[in-house]
Design brief:
Blueprint: H1 3-17, H2 25-44, H3 57-65, H4 67-82, E1 95-101, H5 107-118, E2 152-158, H6 162-174, E3 178-182, E4 197-203, H7 216-229, E5 231-241, H8 245-260, E6 265-267, E7 287-290, H9 295-304, E8 310-319, E9 326-327, E10 332-333, E11 344-347, E12 352-353, E13 359-365, E14 368-374, H10 383-388, E15 394-398, E16 401-403, E17 406-408, E18 414-418, E19 435-436
Parallel strand pairs: 1-2, 1-4, 2-3, 4-5, 12-19, 14-17
Antiparallel strand pairs: 5-8, 6-8, 7-8, 9-10, 11-13, 11-15, 12-13, 13-14, 15-18, 16-17
Helix pairs in contact: 1-3, 2-3, 2-9, 4-5, 7-8
């Protein structure tokens, strides 16, 4: 059984414990209605923001069946991006501590724990245990389920909803991770626990904090600074937010404030300066990955019209400080450019087709944003690699043709493409989802 299938079986069982028989068509129809109520309350009218919506059993069940797999995949994708150069390895020694703020049923911290298992080094990491304990079956429990030499991992989860934390506890322990929780926790007023932690994660939390406060950016920045202070040297802070224009721009503003203080950004940015999208009115930036959703997610997406073939998020992975990029306790090497090496770029747009038949992509790197374009059929050697590029890919460019305001392909141009694939990922064809621009 695949890792995703194992998790789906666990989530279905947890939804049934909450009273939703997720595999019955009528129950799926009802879960779809609850899911739409949740989605509209968080990204439409936003009437649920700041409310204890996870304490409603049917809402929590719909979250488990749909958004839990999405959040898990988003967290894994961003952590993989942060260490995509092969600089991450896990020694498996010592206790690894993860703090999950606004955890809900803990998809992000469980994903982080799996990621730590999968990235540990040594011969004991090979085989099914390298994918994390979930690969060993739904009944696997305890640290021994991770195989010999596995690191010991403890999750501390904070949330206002006792019901969602109880679901998170069962899911984490079913995968072999120790789990302790603090319920009735209010992020706007309650203190954070004592550190240090190797990883701090917050999934879709920041946009709900101080949402009606005109000074919300400053207060969220203070909250992030407190979270960073809990990290062990070289520890990682993962922040995931919705890829909506307003939430994206506010998250990018926080990113710029931390970057101005010298906090390293390991993903997705390849520059340490301010984001070039933020000064442009109506512009934002987000990360994206193709994936093949689990069966129940696909069924709920079909019933609701919510498209989840693409994982979209505005997310960042920060490190503790410029003095180190290593999780000393774990052997995890967190590599990433300080200011973005010359010639290394991140794709930050979808392909755009203009009236002249040129396909253009926006890239972001050390020197800001530039367009890279070509006209298919010109026969340049790099054309195939160019047509394969998608948002969030990293590309190294050698000998580009210099065009007005950007780069093009030429006879000597070479592209070296690096990409992170989400769990169950798939890639569209080379000319899918082109947007037309004049």
């Amino acid at each position: 059984m695949s890792e995703d299938a194992v998790w789906e079986s666990r989530l279905v069982a947890e939804a049934e414990r909450l009273g939703v028989r997720a595999l019955a068509p009528a129950e799926l129809d009802a879960a779809a209605r609850d899911l739409l109520r949740l989605q509209r309350g968080l990204t439409g009218s936003r009437g649920l923001v700041g409310e204890a919506y996870m304490d409603e059993r049917k809402i929590l069940a719909s979250y488990l069946l749909f958004y839990w797999p999405v959040s898990r995949a988003q967290a894994r994708f961003m952590l993989d991006m942060a260490t995509m150069d092969g600089g991450s390895s896990i020694s498996g020694k010592g206790l690894l501590r993860i703090l999950d703020l606004g955890a809900g049923p803990a998809p992000c911290s469980i994903a982080a724990a799996e990621w730590l298992c999968r990235n540990r080094k040594g011969p004991e990491a090979r085989g099914s245990a390298a994918m994390g304990p979930a690969a060993l079956g739904p009944e696997a429990k305890g640290p021994e389920a991770m195989g010999p030499g596995a690191p010991r991992i403890s999750i501390t989860a904070l949330d206002r909803s006792p019901l969602s934390l109880e679901s998170g506890r069962r899911l984490a322990e079913s995968a072999g991770f120790a789990f302790e929780s603090v319920s009735d926790w209010n992020a706007e007023r309650d203190e954070l626990p004592s550190g240090p932690f190797d990883l701090v994660v917050m999934g879709h939390l920041l946009n709900e904090l101080f949402s009606n406060d005109v000074d919300r950016i400053r207060k969220r920045k203070e909250f992030l600074s407190q979270a960073l202070a809990l990290l062990s040297p070289g520890g990682l802070l993962l922040v995931i937010e919705p890829a909506l224009q307003t939430t994206s721009r506010e998250t990018i503003a926080l990113r710029d404030l931390l970057a101005a203080e010298g906090i390293p950004i390991l993903a997705p940015c390849l520059r340490s300066g301010s984001c070039p999208a933020l000064p442009l009115e109506g512009q934002s930036c987000h990360s994206e990955a193709s994936w093949w959703p689990p069966r129940v997610v696909r069924e709920l997406a079909r019933r609701t019209g919510l498209d989840k073939d693409l994982l979209k998020m505005t997310a960042f992975v920060f490190s503790r400080g410029p003095e180190t990029r290593r999780l000393e306790a774990t052997g995890l090497e967190a590599t990433g450019p300080e200011a973005g090496p010359e010639g290394l770029w991140r794709v930050v747009s979808d392909p755009m087709l203009n009236k002249a038949g040129r396909i253009r992509l926006l890239l972001c790197g050390r020197d800001g944003r530039i367009p890279l374009s070509t006209k298919p059929g010109e026969g340049f050697p790099a054309e195939k690699d160019f047509l394969s590029l998608r948002r969030s890919d990293r590309v190294a460019i050698s000998e580009p043709a210099v065009r007005e305001g950007g780069f093009g392909l030429g006879p000597g141009t070479r592209l070296s493409v690096s990409r992170v694939k989400a769990a169950g990922s798939r890639r569209p064809g080379p000319v899918d989802h082109l947007s037309r621009r004049g």
